[in-house]
Write a structure and sequence with these properties.
two-stranded antiparallel ribbon; alpha+beta; 3 helices; 31% helix
């Protein structure tokens, strides 16, 4: 949604955005580019397909915008869950 809104605001010829996600859990020690080295990690792989007559520069900018969407920011930030039984 963030990608589509940005492209529309810029009046870029974006016809469609398709996002595919894959989730897995891996041992932290098997993840070469992860900071955590103990326990299990959640790994989300994201594929973004952009349809339309976009330049390479526009496509690159939209890829960067994907990392600034609220959902991406939430998932990549530290998350604390506080539960209260009432």
């Amino acid at each position: 949604m963030t990608i589509a809104l940005y492209a529309r605001r810029k009046r870029w010829p974006l016809d469609e955005v398709v996002v595919r996600l894959r989730h897995s859990r891996v041992h932290a020690e098997d993840c070469a580019d992860c900071e955590t080295k103990a326990g299990m990690l959640d790994v989300i792989e994201r594929e973004i397909s952009l349809s339309g007559k976009l330049s390479d520069e526009q496509r690159a900018q939209l890829r960067d915008i994907a990392d600034r969407c609220p959902v991406h920011r939430t998932l990549t930030s530290e998350i604390k869950i506080r539960t209260q039984l009432i």
